[in-house]
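Structure tokens please, single chain.
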Amino acid sequence: MKAVFRFKSAVSAVALSATLVAPGVVIAQLGTIAAAQAAVVSRVEVRGNQRVDADTVRSYIGITPGQNFSNADVDDAVKRLFDTGLFSDVRISQAGGALVVDVTEYKIVNQVLFQGNSKVKDEQLSQGVQSKPRQGFSQATVDADVEAIRAAYRQIGRDDAQVTAQVTDLGDNRVNVVFQITEGDRTRIAAVNFVGNSAFPSRRLRDVVSTRESNFLSFLTRNDIYDEDRRRADEEALRRFYYNRGYADFQLISSEGVLDPATNEYTVTFTVDEGQRYTFGDVTIDSAIPGVDAATLQSSVETRQGDVYSAKEVEDTIIGLTERVAGSGYAFAQVTPQGDRNFENRTISVVYTIDQGPRTYVERIEIRGNERTRDYVIRREFDVSEGDAFNQVLIQRAKRRLERLDFFQTVNISTAPGSQADQVILVVDVVEKPTGEFSIGAGYTTGGSTGGGPTAEGSIAERNFLGRGQFIRVGVGGGRNSRDYNFQFTEPYFLGRRISAGFDIFRQTREYDEYESTVDGGSIRFGLPITEALTSQLAYNLTREKYEYTDECDRNENGVLEISDNCSLAPAIVTAIEEQSPWVKSSVSAALTYNTIDNQKNPHAGVFATFSTEVAGLGGDAQWVKFTGRGSYYKTLSEEMDIVGVLALGAGHVQSYGQDLRVFDYFQGSDRLIRGFDYGGFGPVDARTGDHLGGSTYFNASAEAQFPLPVLPQSFGLKGALFADAATLYNNDLRGAVGTDMEWRASVGASVIWASPFGPLRLDYAVPIKKEDTDDVQNFNFGISTRF
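Here you go.
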């Protein structure tokens, strides 16, 4: 409660009155003490109190009988009583030798109730309001709660929700606060329009912003809710999109969301001025620090003459140069880019100037808005701490890291003056968002060794477990003849260092025509980032495989295996079931992953490549070394038509030592190698049964062009693709294996890719154009997209 006091001179006794003129504002009138400016009372009387003990009131006043007090003492007494939040009115007067304190207590809230709500639960609304049971009642607080409830409904797209508050007096100075809610209809986004764009079509720009037009699946994705914060984030996304593609003069003229009351729909419009497209001109480094040789820093420059201008490449260069110079002992060095536009040839020459910045230190880091996320989860993303040299580049890097965590709706880092001239305070303001995920996926496979049929999977994941930044996931899946169970846990900062550690536990069961398998296993893994794009991983893996015959392949009463017409297994498979089950694999694996993909859900540019090796033989039964590698290169072929090209390569080899490979140790053909063939449907086969036995070596390649599907709205998330695949799977030392030479297969086809609420799904139709007589064809494949 804020109090503003006005004093009037008087010769008589003290007279103080307080009147509430507006929520949160008190105007008090005080007659001064006698002309001597001091008085003495023999006692302090408290009146009007019902719940608060009189001695408690006296303790806040601070005026004791027998001691002198002045106007300032009374002023302070009134302020202290109001600051307790217990009283709505306070009057202090002098009656003879007594100081009389008249108080009016706030009523106590008995219950806070919500009526008429179904889209937002009581628990969520209770967390958002300030009125609480067993606390003092305040009309100003109730009015603020009404606005908070309306804001909660705006966040779920119900802008016309009506909220009123009713206060019911229960007697005994107690009240119930009831919020009556009329939820109204859900607002939608009818259109997301762009005005002034010519270099990029509106369809391409709609893919840049996060605001989406409403469609029949919007109730699942919830990305068609109009929100001012989201619109401002979209503005920044558009700026970065243009700046990174050469349009250094780009300006966002305006953006607005207009609601049509008749249809309860928003129309969101972004008006832009694209400007001209630039390329890099001369790129030089100018060092003003003695001992820092500009020539030695050229390897840290990401910008190249003749390349399309990119603000991101400029930022990366600033970071690289700053780190190099700081690593040489110049902690306060600053790198400042200076651009010189040439409007005639549309180039921008950049000079990176390196000089000594002001000696400023970080006094402390203040974090605000993190109600759930622990402070240390945010602090550890900073490469600076209290007492370190202030470095704006490292601050911006920390901001990007915090945004990549995907824990927060917004992240803002600002500075405030410290206690001394060379000290600054970093203020980190975050707005948290839900980090739990529940996903469901479905697919359908035709044919295959497990008979094909519908498949489904579901998982529950939490990216910020208990606010500690940990990842946890539980998943189940399966089909007609398969079951999968898995559990994952990852600690991203093991032992306080930027090293991830985690473990996986899983079980897989498969039922084939003649036998069934059960694989139980787990792994312990560690990950280490080498650069922003390059990461490494080391893991220990332990699995136990068990194979059993089905009813089609059973033993008679004498224990002899009966091979019927329905049970015609290759000798290598019989050996694996008879002699090599159960089978324990104990291995270590290491991997390097390079990832510069611009958007993991909808990539348009960048490289994703991974190389791994696994060595089995640290105990257990398996003894082999396996090498695998794959990479995908994405490039936008046409910005205007939003056509993206994808080139992919892969290879693998497994080599035994000490003992021969089992049939189940070989690579099997799959749609990840080449589409148009059944799983395990190509490569070496058994001469007698025709069963595919897999191969120890494979190579594969793919070329694909992805494009928007015409007519369909972009908000549906559907794209088309045309592709050509080639692969070979060869080498097999098992007895009876034929077709072990390198023979290439090839296929062409088309796909429909759907960025569904359940995850990325795709339908492939492929036709083999080069195959062998022993190959099994599968034209259709529908399932979760896992191309990288």
